[in-house]
Amino acid sequence: MKKKQLIYAISGVLVAAAIWYFFIKKYDYRVTFETSNAPGVVYHKLSNWNIWPGSKAKKTQILSKQAFSKVALQIKENDSIMLIDWQFYSISDSITKVYACFKDKNHSIYQKFKLLFGKTDFVRKSIRIAKKIRNELKSHELKYKVSTPEKATIPEKYCACVSSSGKLLSKASQMIEKNPILLDFLRLNEIPITEYPLLQVTQWHQKKETIDFDFCFPIPKKKEYKLLKDIVLKTIPEREALKIVFNGNYMLSDRAWFSMIAYTARNRIAIELYPVEFYYNDPHSGTSELTWKTDVFFPLKQQ
Predict the structure, then answer these.
(1) Quick check: 236 and 157 in contact, CB under 8 A?
(2) Does one domain contain both 133 and 162?
(3) What is the CATH number of the domain that holds 65?
(4) Is 286 found in the same domain as 238?
(5) 170-178: average pLDDT
(6) Whole domain around residue 189: which residue ranges?
(7) Distances in Å between the alpha carbon of 238 and those of 233, 297, 298?
(8) Residues 198, 296: contact at Cβ < 8 Å?
(9) pLDDT: is 184 or 223 the higher one?
(10) Do residue 287 and residue 164 come from a single domain?
(11) Nearest-10 crossing angle of helices 39-48, 254-267
């Protein structure tokens, strides 16, 4: 009797496991790796990088995404449709854990069955895609450095500014485009450049990956200036903040933003997502980009 009960129990466990494996489990294969990039960098890469460049037979589509933690992709290749659910989160100040869950949309049960007998073409393709992302992120790590955030104060500055908006990826090019307007204003008013330029984000639309910002030059505060079209004079007030130092090309300074978001989330520090950046190097100086310095401030939320 006990032997029969044991057989029934084992059979029940095997049936339950089979039901879970073939019908409930949401993915066919999973790959896990770690990166020193912040979760926001992983999110940005997956949201904007075409996994299959140069191939007309393959089409990548974003099905859904959650800022800085999830991206769901669909890849069509001829008659095959692969679903990839990317999830990632920070596990320390310098490490992000990445999970890539792969599923054959039309032949999931078949893929799971074949996997019981060893690696399949589907598995090899899944590993190849995950390695491509991992290697791209690893190469990206060499392009910049960020410091550990620390408490600081945003200095008060009276500035001449010009407003702009667009994709986060185009921030640096928009600064270059607006720079002549500011230089014309400085020349018109015979103002020497004695302080470093800065940028203040006024809106950050994370889902759309766009920003509105003011690009500014600090100027002496006086009653009257000869104004030009698009020039606005404003005071950036002194604020308590967290500061992170970024070294690298200014077009990548948002990597410091993502590191700050991960840091404050782990340490439960409330910040306002309106970063202020101070740029200390001339991009045309010919020096290594890793020597370029940007101080990035995030205002602390007032209680």
Answers:
(1) yes
(2) no
(3) 3.30.530.20
(4) yes
(5) 94
(6) 146-299
(7) 16, 11, 12
(8) no
(9) 184
(10) yes
(11) 130
